[in-house]
């Protein structure tokens, strides 16, 4: 399927978001992959119906475009969508009667085994969505059990820090479904850490039996564009959550983290003569602060920022907001 690229520079809180128009004229863009949030479920190999609802009750889709042709296929429990440079791999695993760490280990191992020998060797980005992320106490909390399964699979695949991908891990509120979306690339990525935050893969023991296997961001320097994938970012300084229960302060701390990440690495958009409007996905526990979030992001990153907000649970129960970019 091909589509043309509208001028989306001033597109605000759109139903459709277009990103990654990689180095091609706008006439020949092809759809590589589509995230659907809160839209009627459609089953095909090049999209996923994520079990999160948009906060403003509009339906939202994120469409990834490429200049090269696209092939899709299915193998085992995995779906693949591939173009010249990138490959999306997705799975939907029914968690009924399953232990989350075992299910995650199996899913990640299937993905990493299937991709170990293919043409897209670099794991750039992962999105993980599953229900009841904060259920259970201490090390038995679902999120922590998730990190155990993920760590086992990366270890078996020989992928270790700092080479773990950028990631988002968010709790859903319906269905017993583990949804994993991974992006692989031919071009190698440079992983980036944040000087305000301890690397997640170095978090101390108190935050779980294993440290979470993800990088703060992943940068691909492409012939025609630099692509920066920023992990879900929250109100954490060092390794400690800040401003428990205070939405506004958490929002400001989160934005300070995002800004530190991009400015320290010379990635702030003003250093590029040609950059597309940044795209932010915001995950919030409830609607408190929705308006403040949109205006603060625009103040910090530009009025043309494209923002959409989803209801979801953050992996630490005291955190109310997380933003990826
Ligand atoms: C944090 O900074 C907040 O385990 O995949 C953000 C992004 C968070 C990804 C993950 C967790 C993950 O620790 C939580």
- Overall geometry comes to globular
Structural class determined from secondary elements = alpha+beta
Number of helices: 4
Largest sheet: 6 strands, mixed
Bound molecules: 3-(2-carboxyethyl)benzoic acid
First-residue to last-residue Cα separation: 26 Å
Helix share of residues?
10-25%
Structure write-up:
- The protein has 325 residues and is α+β, with helices and mostly antiparallel strands.
- The protein has 4 helices and 19 strands.
- The protein has helices at residues 100-116, 142-156, 247-264, 290-301; strands spanning 16-19, 30-37, 47-50, 53-54, 60-66, 71-75, 78-82, 86-94, 122-131, 166-172, 177-185, 190-192, 217-221, 226-230, 236-237, 240-241, 279-284, 306-311, 321-324.
- It has a 6-stranded mixed sheet with strand order 6-7-8-11-9-10, covered by helices on one side. Strands 1-5-2-3 form a 4-stranded mixed sheet, with no helix packed on it. A 4-stranded mixed sheet has the order 4-18-17-19, with helices on one face.
- Helix 2 (142-156) links the parallel strand 9 (122-131) and strand 10.
- The model is unreliable at 1-24 (pLDDT under 50).
- It binds 3-(2-carboxyethyl)benzoic acid.
């Amino acid at each position: 399927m091909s589509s043309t690229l509208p001028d989306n520079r001033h597109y605000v809180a759109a139903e459709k978001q277009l990103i990654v128009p990689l180095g091609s004229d706008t006439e020949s863009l092809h759809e590589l992959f589509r995230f659907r949030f809160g839209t009627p479920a459609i089953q095909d190999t090049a999209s996923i119906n994520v079990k999160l609802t948009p906060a403003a009750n509009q339906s939202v889709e994120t469409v990834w475009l490429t200049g090269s042709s696209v092939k899709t296929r299915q193998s085992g429990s995995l779906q693949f969508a591939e173009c010249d440079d990138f490959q999306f791999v997705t799975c939907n695993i029914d968690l009924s009667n399953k232990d989350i760490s075992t299910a995650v280990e199996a899913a990640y191992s299937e993905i990493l085994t299937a991709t170990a020998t293919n043409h897209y060797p670099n794991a750039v980005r992962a999105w993980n969505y599953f229900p009841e992320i904060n259920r259970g106490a201490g090390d038995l909390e679902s999120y922590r059990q998730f990190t155990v399964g993920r760590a086992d699979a990366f270890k078996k695949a020989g992928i270790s820090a700092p080479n773990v991908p950028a990631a988002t891990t968010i709790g859903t509120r319906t269905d017993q479904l583990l949804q994993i979306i991974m992006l692989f690339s031919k071009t190698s990525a440079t992983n980036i850490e944040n000087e305000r935050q301890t690397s997640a893969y170095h978090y101390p023991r108190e935050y779980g039996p294993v440290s979470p296997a993800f990088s703060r961001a992943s940068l691909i320097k492409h012939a025609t564009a630099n692509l920066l994938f920023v992990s879900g970012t929250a109100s954490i300084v060092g390794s400690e959550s800040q401003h428990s229960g205070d939405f506004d302060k958490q929002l400001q701390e989160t934005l300070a983290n995002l800004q530190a990440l991009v400015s320290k690495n010379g990635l702030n958009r003003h250093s590029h003569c040609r950059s597309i409007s940044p795209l932010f996905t915001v995950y919030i526990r409830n609607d408190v602060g929705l308006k403040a979030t949109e205006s603060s992001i625009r103040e910090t990153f530009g009025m043309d920022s494209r923002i959409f907000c989803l209801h979801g649970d953050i992996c630490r129960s005291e955190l109310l907001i997380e933003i990826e970019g």
